Amino acid sequence: xxxxxxxxxxxxxxxxxxxxxxxxxxxxxxxxxRLRETLTGLGHTVHxxxxxxxxxxxxxxxxxxxxxxxxAYGARFKHPQRTxxxxxxxxxYESNGWTYVxxxxxxxxxxxFAFLPDAYGGLVLAGYGFRTEVAAHAEAQDVLGRPVVSxxxxxxxxxxxxxALAALDDGAIxxxxxxxxxxxxxxxxxxxxxxxxADDADAHAFGLNLVSDGRHVVLNSEAxxxxxxxxxxxxxxxxxxxxxxxxxxxxxxxxVAELRP
Length: 261
Ligand code: ARG
Known about the structure:
The protein has helices at residues 25-41, 85-95, 134-144, 182-191, 200-204, 224-232, 243-246, and strands spanning 65-68, 71-74, 99-101, 113-116, 123-128, 148-152, 165-167, 173-175, 196-197, 211-212, 216-220, 236-240. With 261 residues, the protein is an alpha/beta fold. It has one domain: L-arginine/glycine Amidinotransferase, Chain A, CATH 3.75.10. The mean pLDDT is 98. Belongs to the DDAH family. InterPro entries: DDAH-like.
């Protein structure tokens, strides 16, 4: 995770961002701190990446890489405003002694990749259509040695896979069907017939942008409908307020890059 010390909406690269809407950086920091405490309170270890001035989106740490089996497949951002973030993430992985593979293809890390260790022996789900190039899916498969299933995103508000789909445990997912093309919806129904599905309200409240440890599901406090669906499915929803970070087009999951050493 990376604290939103220099967070602001200085440019607009997704439909949630509006440079005319003021951002309360102090409040963003408080909300982020609450999220970090929530995760450590649940027993997780959180490593903190040092934020850098002029990289306001660094708080969305999920976009910096995608790690599976101890190998981090690095990011290559689509928008020039975020390009330099990849360097900071690379330094982080390398300084911790993990294998880091620099990508040739445009991809936004865990924003567009999800890993399900128990689904079909270990499956990567990958989004494309807005940020990550589909060629990066093949590259990720080559680097990580895990099958990668490409899913096409079609709704501009759900520009990253992690805004529309989440791993709930090692083999189960929740997703918002309307964010995907018809053929991709069909693929998801075939692979995950028991998935928890979200409706428009759940998705617009960032209810899919969640972090789950298989039991506790940490999600945006506005996503009350989604929380109920998760409770009905046997999970324990844990709500956190992240109103300021929503203005940048992200929520819980965007702030967390999961380490799978
Ligand atoms: N403002 C950032 C962008 O548009 C938000 C990134 C959200 N991150 C995520 N993993 N969905 O790039």
